[in-house]
Structures are given as structure tokens and as C-alpha cells.
Amino acid sequence: MSLMSRPSLPRFSRFAWLMGLYGENYQRLQQLFDFPQLQPGAYVSQVPGGLDLLVEVLEVHPYTLELRLSYRLLDAQTGQPDPSAYVRIYRDARQAEVTHCYVGRHWQDVLGWHPSAKVLFGHRLRMNSFLNKWLEYLVGQGHAPQTLKPLAPEAESEASVVCA
């Protein structure tokens, strides 16, 4: 069979790849959290030998949840949690996307003031790939719905750092 006569394999567009990541992120987040039980507030997940995962439930709406995930690690220059990811969960569509991350820089420093659609799309792809790998790691470490506990009121102030 020559190369010319072989049936071609379907090609995935970058958009289809991103939508697939959103679906995988949702499934991984379901392994970590019991969505119906989450209410606005700060939580911590602790596992033996692992870093404490801080979870801030920022908003709860009928079809969406908005969270910030971070460790109890702060950027030395800004005092902001680093790494952290702001995640919007679409329960009805079974999708989860990173809306933004804080990794020591503002979005303008990363993308410029007027990024092209291609640059913006590439950034979303990288952020959601990062989240996908991080969630896989967290599940592997043993973080799960049963390890998530409300953060003590005196410790909530460390989780409520304003986003830059």
C-alpha cells in the first residue's frame, strides 16, 4: 500500500484539543471535590507527605462554580500564593477551565496589552495543560473529597489574598 492510498487519520484541531482538556479537567476535579457540597469559603486538603492544598470557593451559581487552587507557598516578591489557578467549573457542560493563573507576573507581562487571538488561545492551552497535570498529581498524592476540610477561621486570612 502506498502512502498516497492510505486512509488519513482524523486530525484534531487545537480547539478540539482545548475542549478535551476542559473535559478532562472536569473529571479530575470531580475526583478531588464533591461539587454539590462546596459552599463559598476556604478549605484545605491535607495528605501525608504532601503539600497542603488550599481551595477557595469564590462563587457558587446553579450551573457554575469558581475556585482558586493553591498551595501554602507564597511568592517571595509579591506575597501572593504561587502556584495558583482560578478555575471555572461548568457543571451542566461537564467542563472546567482555568480563567487565569498567578505565577509571579500579571497577564499583561505574559501576553502584552493587545494579544492576538492565536497568542491568547495558546496561553489558554498552556494554562489548562498545566491544570490538567497538576490535578493528576494532586489525585495521585491522595487528595480527595474526604481530605477536604473547612479552613479554620484564623487561617482563612492566608487564603484570602487579593489577586494581583
Task: Describe the secondary-structure layout.
Elements (H helix, E strand, L loop, with lengths): L13 H19 L8 E5 L7 E8 L3 E8 L12 E7 L4 E8 L4 H5 L5 H25 L6 E3 L5 H4 L5
Antiparallel strand pairs: 1-2, 1-6, 2-3, 3-4, 4-5
Describe this structure in words.
There is one protein chain. The chain is of the alpha+beta class and 164 residues long. It is 32% helix and 24% strand. A 6-stranded antiparallel β-sheet has the order 5-4-3-2-1-6. A hairpin with a 7-residue loop joins strand 1 (41-45) and strand 2. It starts with 13 loop residues before the first helix and ends in a 5-residue tail after the last helix.
pLDDT averaged over residues: 82
Helix run count: 4
Structural class: alpha+beta
Helical content, roughly?
Answer: 25-40%
Compute the separation of the termini in Å. 58 Å
Radius of gyration: 18 Å
Spatial strand order of the main sheet: 5-4-3-2-1-6
Q: What sequence of helices (H) and strands (E) makes up the elements?
A: HEEEEEHHEH
The gross shape turns out to be globular
Flag low-confidence runs: 160-164
- The percentage of residues in β strands lies in 15-25%
